[in-house]
């Protein structure tokens, strides 16, 4: 069935804004500028402040939700279903996971390339699958276990590509390894977030935009408050600011004042996450969760191609192999192979049609989607 213009617009919006989200964060990391008090020129490494901006973008999804509600109030519009009463504090545990996972990923993005960052985020399939078995009592079918194994193999190949690539002064080998490990650690936290949402949040029939916006509100307020103690906590070699602390928001604002393009990069990051969440939810509704997964994979290709074109990283053939294996793992886990098997002259596939996995195929993906 041919796509309508509106569906094509949504797919393009998701692909473009999703790519901008990662690329704008990496663009900001690549800038150097003087800090406060006449400190010498240094890189813009403020991952926790960037995470605050991302949560501000998620928080703006609440505005989109209430606009849709106002429109639906005067029309017979089913895009905003009647909302059941619920306790907003239900979103606090997932928001804390989102905050921790997103902050770790922004720290990691300072240490590794944008393409590896995007590819290694595929590790979420492994932990979500395992946690759904352990805590939600789900039974994974054979194709999902094969998808997890393929994802592990793909992660190993991408890791090898990072080890064998040439490393400059900005990304030393030790930093790249640390960054890759931090990304995988963050996916464990993201998987916990998805399990918490599945177990406690989804049963309340909360609109996805409202869910994203509420988690964004919690993350924005809590992480903004945490910037104060972070200003005084020493971080040693993990610090990217002259004072050597965990985060120095004042230094970040001074750098933005001296290099206005950093503000443009941060604005792109904040606005893109809001539009990306809206487009992703709309693609799932108007098309399918499978289409959303395919577009998310294409986003990795766009990020990789732009990073190579801008000279942010060097080409390594192993990354192609790693990406293809990761893509195969994601397709197997999400059942993308089933339509192909259905066209074969055999009878219907085995018991794989029995259970529909909501995790990773649901109506929203954490930011991070994280962040």
Report on this model:
The structure is a single chain. This protein has 371 residues and is mainly alpha-helical. It contains 14 helices and 2 strands; from the N terminus they run αββααααααααααααα. Strands 1-2 form a two-stranded antiparallel ribbon. Helix 3 runs antiparallel to helix 9 and helix 5 packs antiparallel against helix 12. The longest helix has 29 residues. About 5% of the residues have low confidence.
Which features would summarize this protein structure in a list?
globular; 2 strands; 371 residues; mainly alpha; two-stranded antiparallel sheet
- SSE arrangement, N to C: HEEHHHHHHHHHHHHH
Uncertain ranges? 348-365
Give the C-alpha Rg: 21 Å
Helix content: 55-70%
Multimerization state: single chain
Distance between the termini: 33 Å
Strand content: under 5%
Query: Structural class, judged by helices and strands?
Result: mainly alpha
The backbone outline, from C-alpha atoms, is: globular
Total helical segments:
14
Number of strands: 2
The strand order across the widest sheet is: 1-2
Major sheet: 2 strands, antiparallel
Instruction: Give the integer mean of the pLDDT values.
Output: 85
């Amino acid at each position: 069935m041919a796509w309508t213009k509106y569906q094509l617009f949504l797919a393009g919006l998701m692909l473009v804004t999703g790519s901008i989200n990662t690329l704008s964060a990496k663009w900001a990391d690549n800038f150097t500028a003087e800090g406060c008090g006449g400190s010498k020129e240094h890189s813009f490494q403020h991952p926790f402040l960037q995470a605050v901006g991302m949560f501000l973008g998620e928080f703006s999804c609440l505005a989109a939700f209430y606009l849709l509600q106002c429109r639906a109030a005067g029309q017979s519009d089913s895009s905003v279903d009647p909302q059941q009463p619920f306790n907003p504090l239900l979103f606090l545990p997932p928001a804390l996971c989102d905050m921790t996972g997103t902050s770790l990923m922004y720290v990691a993005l300072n240490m590794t390339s944008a393409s590896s960052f995007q590819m290694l985020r595929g590790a979420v399939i492994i932990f979500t699958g395992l946690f759904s078995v352990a805590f939600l009592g789900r039974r994974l079918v054979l194709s999902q276990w094969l998808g997890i194994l393929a994802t592990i193999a793909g992660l190993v190949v991408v890791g090898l590509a990072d080890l064998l690539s040439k490393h400059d002064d900005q990304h030393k080998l030790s930093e790249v390894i640390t960054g890759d490990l931090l990304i995988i650690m963050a996916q464990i936290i993201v998987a916990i977030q998805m399990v918490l949402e599945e177990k406690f949040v989804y049963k309340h029939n909360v609109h996805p935009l409202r869910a994203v916006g509420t988690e964004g509100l919690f993350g924005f307020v809590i992480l903004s408050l945490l910037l104060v103690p972070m200003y005084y906590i020493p971080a040693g070699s993990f610090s990217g600011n002259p004072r050597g602390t965990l985060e120095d928001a004042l230094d970040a604002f001074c750098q933005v004042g001296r290099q206005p393009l950093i503000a443009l990069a941060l604005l792109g990051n904040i606005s893109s996450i809001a539009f990306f969440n809206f487009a992703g939810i709309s693609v799932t509704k108007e098309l399918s969760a499978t289409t959303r997964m395919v577009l998310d994979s294409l986003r990795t290709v766009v990020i990789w191609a732009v990073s190579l074109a801008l000279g942010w990283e060097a080409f390594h053939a192993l990354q192609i192999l790693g990406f293809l294996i990761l893509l195969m793992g994601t397709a197997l886990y999400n059942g993308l192979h089933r339509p192909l098997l259905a066209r074969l002259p055999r009878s219907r596939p085995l018991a794989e049609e029995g259970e529909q996995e909501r995790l990773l195929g649901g109506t929203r993906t954490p930011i991070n989607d994280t962040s």
